[in-house]
Amino acid sequence: MQVTRELFNDVMVPNYNPSEVIPVRGEGSRVWDQTGKEFIDFAGGIAVNCLGHCHPALVNALKTQGEKIWHLANVMTNEPALRLAKKMTDATFAEKVYFANSGAEANEAALKLARRFALDVYGEDKTQIIAFNKGFHGRTFFTVTVGGQAAYSDGFGPKPAAIDHCDYNDIAAFEALISDKTCAVMMEPLQGEGGIVSPTAEFAQKVRQLCDKHNALLIFDEVQTGVGRTGDLYAYQGLDVIPDILTSAKALGGGFPIGAMLTTTEIAAHLKVGTHGSTYGGNPLACAVAEAAFDTVNSSSVLAGVKEREQLFRTGLMAINEKYHVFSEVRGKGLLLGAVLNDTFAGRARDFLVAGINHGLMSLVAGADVIRFTPSLVIPIADINEGLARFEKAVADVVNG
Description:
With about 400 residues, the chain is of the alpha/beta class. The chain contains 15 helices and 15 strands. It folds into two domains: about 5-55 and about 300-400, Aspartate Aminotransferase, domain 1 (Alpha-Beta Complex); about 55-295, Type I PLP-dependent aspartate aminotransferase-like (Major domain) (Aspartate Aminotransferase, domain 2), CATH 3.40.640. It has helices spanning about 5-10, 45, 55-65, 80-90, 105-120, 140-145, 150-155, 170-175, 200-215, 235-240, 265-270, 285-295, 300-325, 350-360, 380-400; strands at about 25, 30-35, 40, 95-100, 130, 165, 180-185, 215-220, 245-250, 260-265, 325-335, 335-340, 360, 365, 370-375. The strands form three sheets. The protein has a seven-stranded mixed β-sheet with strand order 4-10-9-8-7-5-6, sandwiched between helices. A four-stranded mixed β-sheet has the order 1-2-3-13. Strands 11-12-15-14 form a four-stranded antiparallel β-sheet. A hairpin with a 2-residue loop joins β1 and β2. The chain is globular and about 60 Å long. The chain starts with a helix and ends with a helix.
């Protein structure tokens, strides 16, 4: 069978519009397509491939576990899941873990837990969930409604109720919205899809204080920021704000699908037997790979290396900007960075992405005005330099029409 991009149009639902490029092999931060063309990967599968492609630790974990046991029903537990949960609780504020298959599922579990906790402890009037405009929390009907982008949630009929939004970093608007009827506040500790927007320290602290005042649970969606992406193991550690519930996915499996919801023993007690579940969640294969990824990232050398690489990206992007004057700023933290297009190039982020592909560079966008970079946390310095050189050629192409 000949596998081409045209086959996508024949057999796949048209909710995606993928590039003509079909990658077939990856190693480290480089990828090769069907024709043998090489790309530098600054996209990381949208902040998923935290150790690049085919990292030996992950390949070894997959092969080793693949010859032991793949899947069990949740009537039994398994060793990889228990080891991973222990390592995650040891490294964070959390005491209990629930495993799922994705970030959306981890967020769904977090929201259901928050609603159940409020019902059990405070009664049926405490249902309001507050989230933030331009936030993104997944594509299930509950999580997409909590996400603050109507374009993703409109057009599917009546939405789940008692969900309200205000602007990120707007303390006054948030304070006006929260009350004793608020059951939970869900926020990204750095907005990803919404344009790589960091919270102010004051905002993050105030959200925590007001949640405490109104007995609302603070849920940090760390699906994109977690597992080393910002230079801390989890972004909350760099903000010095401890949530009640945290969700993790993307980089957690280094490319293998897995999600996790972390919380305290007190809160976790409200997901009693039978209240929530997942057929594949916590399966041995996913947890074995995730354990290897977590162990590798959770080291002082890798986390320090993220901050070092951030500076190389910032310096390189600013050098490009001095020549071509396309960005107003570079936002973000660690290796979750966004180059924000200035007024001259507003709305053209995708043009830069496409031009990059033509020069052998994979990048992302975060809305129409931001070019997003989420490479491997251990991307070699030589690959950063080469990737930036390719990106400069792409920028030149766009600027010169």
